[in-house]
Amino acid sequence: MKILAVNAGSSSLKFQMYEMPEEKVLISGVFERIGIDNSFYTIKLNGEKIRKDVELSNHSVAVGFLTKELLENNIVDSLDEIKGVGHRVVQGADKFDRTVIVDENVEKMISDLSCLAPLHNPAALVGIKAFKEFMPNATHTAVFDTAFHQTMPEVAYMYALPYEWYKDYSVRKYGAHGTSHKYVSLRAREILGKDDSKIIVCHLGNGGSISAVVNGKCIDTSMGFTPNAGVIMGTRCGDIDASIIPYIMNVTGMNANDIDTAINKKSGLLGISGISSDSRDIEINAENGNKRCILAQEMFSRRVVEYIAKYYVLMGGADAICFTAGIGENSISTRKSIIDKLGVLGIKLDENANNIRGEEKLITTSDSKIPCYVIPTNEEVMIARDTYNLAMEEKNV
Ligand code: AMP
Known about the structure:
Layout: E1 2-8, E2 13-19, E3 24-32, E4 40-45, E5 48-53, H1 59-72, E6 82-89, E7 100-101, H2 104-112, H3 120-134, E8 139-144, H4 154-157, H5 163-169, H6 178-192, E9 198-204, E10 208-214, E11 217-221, H7 244-252, H8 256-265, H9 268-273, H10 279-287, H11 291-315, E12 320-324, H12 325-330, H13 332-340, E13 361-362, E14 372-374, H14 379-394
Parallel strand pairs: 1-6, 6-8, 9-12, 12-14
Antiparallel strand pairs: 1-2, 2-3, 3-4, 4-5, 7-8, 9-10, 10-11, 13-14
Helix pairs in contact: 1-3, 10-11, 11-13
This protein binds adenosine monophosphate.
Adenosine monophosphate is lined by residues 205-206, 234, 278-280, 325-327, 330-331, 357.
């Protein structure tokens, strides 16, 4: 069965087509700069990457090119062969604790939740509408970034703020990157060979989040009401003293939008280093002795360690610590810096094993009290799996 996994952003659209249940990737690609000048797309097919510069005035035009590629490359003979399309949706709040089939009601709920994800949910809806237009007979599903975190107990998701803010304005922790945390924790349980397990997943990319997963269920995560909480990220500040915000507004005259931009786009590694949000640039400049880059690296790994320590205690131990996403999978020095700080827990890095990028590997020594793994994430396959299962159900296969 052919299943498409889709991730639509406001000006981009990523896709991956699977043959299910084999989980074989048939074609993948990304449309960029949709609705802006110089738009283009790249597709990966049979190990080859092809780029095409085309005008992409909106998402519908992009889906048109996508369907053309699928037909021309004989991935499908007819679009009706595509039985399911899984759409990544960032914010499902407490309304969705699993993947669902997108009907009119679900579309309305995703739209209503746009107040909690003003950039992301509307983009996902645009994607859903564009694909429904071309593939009306497929089962369209919404796979929420927040769903995996819905198992968090109240004690973890509540903020110590006026209770009315929770009741009237839905202010609570929702988390993000849930599909990645789910995939990596599931894979860790497979590697460990046991279902009853305590896993800490460190998703460290341009955005970053840590989660504590007990027996497959998330009990806490570092992102909060928005994806700005928790660890230090490329351009996001992570946890800060909330009172800094009114103070800066008062002394500078900045308004709420200015502050929003500063804490989301000008902070994190970029804010501290003043050079870049990209951890590769930070690494190179730190090696050359740049003090602010060295500080950015130290602050980054220290914050991750703080969360690992917190979740270790909350779970009463840990069976595995996993690293994933751009930095987690590829930054040898960041993983070393984090794991070296965990020596007090009897965790010992295997320097040779750690000398890898982007592959699944145990990176601690055999006598390390807790094994640490690099597990490349695969959100697309999770989207495809859920969509395949729902398409099978809907079509009574
Ligand atoms: P993501 O958001 O998962 O795509 O991750 C992006 C982050 O991964 C950026 O900060 C990159 O600098 C980082 N990254 C990717 N490759 C490497 C690498 N080889 N070494 C260090 N960091 C990397």
